[in-house]
Input
Amino acid sequence: MLEATGIPTSLNQSPVFGPVISRRFGVSLGVNLMPETGKICTFDCLYCENGFNDQRKTHDGYVTLEQVTSALEKALAAMAEKRERLDDICFAGNGEPTASPVFPAAVDAALSLRDRYTPEARVTVLSNGTQAARPAVHDALLRVDRNVLKLDTVDAAYIAALDRPRVPYDVEHQVETFASFNGHVIVQTIFLCGSYAGRSLGNMDEAHVGAWLSALERIKPEGVTIYTVDRDTPAPGLMKAPREALDAIAQRVRDLGLPCIVGY
Output
């Protein structure tokens, strides 16, 4: 197993970055509603590739709808003129995209621009799910092609230690919210080993996996993505989950009749 070095990686450009090659989504153009000068997030995950929230403080606010629409149209028009392939437009960036006040309108803009310039591409949102119950956010997530929501087990103490929510977070409420998408959701979960601040962070034991699988049965997602740490993390002591452990968990997901993608 490889141990993370405890060095946060760099921030993303804003409001558009890439395109990048995604293991899951192909050639993907990123949409970053947060400023490129720092991080704005409702979680403060120990494994975040952008670093801890306190390490990435910024006095700049979210990008405006005009800024993101203009930048996205410029990028899409340039790629279309060069006949460059684009598979995906992905809302991600330096924090939680759905927390931005312009998120619903930005989704509509992205869908419209996609239809105009690259109709074969899909629009994806990577979210920690903390805002998914808000009506405007919920409706926007129903409109995108891929609604990817995080659920790193259903153990509240574990989530408090690993994901470190900075807003009220109730696991049961999250599961109910995810289920309310009636299948239009992809659940994303990280599995890892190691410890931080004296607490074990391994979540591949039966207590964690079994309860998580039960939650998946309730959510009934269109798919599940499991992965492990792949880059440097701001917290030292985190380690990659063994490939065989991920494969075993993936098989249990598939035994439920759910598609499962594994990221090593």
